[in-house]
Backbone:
């Protein structure tokens, strides 16, 4: 990912910059999309509905949860899991809201549909651009990722049926989720949330309709909130009043 | 799962995801969220992903059905995820461990 000086404007330059930036972030999405495609072929959902999650939801972890939980979890548990996984997008929306204020109405409605992790990560570094250049950069990144995703998922669906069961690709989703969990942990409260979420999910694994996922997630969020308070309190007590910086 | 139930799940998932992404851009573009709320949101992802990982790994057979190779695969995936911070390597490490230990045990 490269940092773009303000003077680097113009359609061609913005397009090239966006494409150069998006490639390294798109590559890891390829095997993930492939796993989602494989999961579609093993899902209890009708395959065409499971496939539609790629163009309509366009969120790998949420899609994988919906596709793999179908048939074993209740409808409301599936919907809750999908929505809870995507809660982080609220944070992205909050962070980019001031930049989107300068965009035309159609962009404020269309742009957020494409806001996956990678789009946010790149767009958040381009808020200094003019509204037109930001829009061009954002849409180039977004449409590139959307196109790649919607090619890779069907490819996984094509290959899925010919993969032997001994390859144990049914275990690929938990492996991917394990990696995503660890990527998402950046602070101590998040680690506490993950640990409690995992342990409670394990303790409640026998609950029907995979209710343990929701119970574990709620317990994890509560643990994260408690950890936040502890961390804040310690930070306050360990910072001497004399060392506090004056307000500017 | 019936087609109707699947379509309901798809519609709710798609609409919910869209509004999670667009809600604050469309409605609250000129305001900021309390810092404590933003921090709380950061913990939702790890909590739910960890719960999903464990629940999917254990599967419908319960704890008694978990194989050593599966636990080792998750551990290997976790170590590589922290070490390389790369999803491809995480996937390769986890699945390779599962295949190798599965063949040996």
Residues:
């Amino acid at each position: 990912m490269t940092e773009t000086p303000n003077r680097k404007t113009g359609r061609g330059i913005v397009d090239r910059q966006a494409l150069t930036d998006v490639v390294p972030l798109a590559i890891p999405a390829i095997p993930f999309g492939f796993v989602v495609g494989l999961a579609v072929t093993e899902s209890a959902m009708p395959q065409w509905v499971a496939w539609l999650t790629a163009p309509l939801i366009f969120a790998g972890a949420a899609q994988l949860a919906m596709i793999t939980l179908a048939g074993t979890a209740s409808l409301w548990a599936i919907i809750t899991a999908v929505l809870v996984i995507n809660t982080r997008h609220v944070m992205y929306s909050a962070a980019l809201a001031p930049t989107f204020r300068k965009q035309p109405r159609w962009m404020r409605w269309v742009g957020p549909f494409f806001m996956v992790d990678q789009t946010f990560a790149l767009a958040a570094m381009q808020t200094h651009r003019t509204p037109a250049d930001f829009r061009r950069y954002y849409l180039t990144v977004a449409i590139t990722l959307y196109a790649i995703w919607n090619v890779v998922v069907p490819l996984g669906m094509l290959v899925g049926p010919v993969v032997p069961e001994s390859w144990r690709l049914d275990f690929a989703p938990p492996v991917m989720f394990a990696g995503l969990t660890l990527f998402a942990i950046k602070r101590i409260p998040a680690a506490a949330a993950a640990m409690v979420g995992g342990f409670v999910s394990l303790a409640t694994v026998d609950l029907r309709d995979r209710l343990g996922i929701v119970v574990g997630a709620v317990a994890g969020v509560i643990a994260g909130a408690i950890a936040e308070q502890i961390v804040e309190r310690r930070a306050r007590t360990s910072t001497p009043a004399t060392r506090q910086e004056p307000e500017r | 799962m019936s087609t109707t139930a699947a379509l309901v799940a798809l519609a709710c998932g798609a609409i919910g995801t869209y509004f999670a992404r667009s809600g604050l851009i469309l409605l609250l573009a000129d305001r900021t969220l309390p810092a404590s709320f933003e921090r709380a949101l950061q913990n939702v992802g790890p909590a739910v992903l960890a719960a999903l990982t464990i629940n999917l790994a254990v599967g419908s057979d319960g704890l008694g059905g978990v194989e050593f190779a599966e636990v080792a695969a998750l551990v290997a995936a976790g170590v590589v995820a922290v070490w390389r911070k790369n999803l491809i390597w995480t996937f390769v490490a986890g699945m390779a461990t599962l295949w190798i230990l599965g063949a040996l045990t």
Helices of chain B lie at 3-27, 35-58, 68-84, 87-104. Chain B touches chain A through 70 residues (CB under 8 Å).
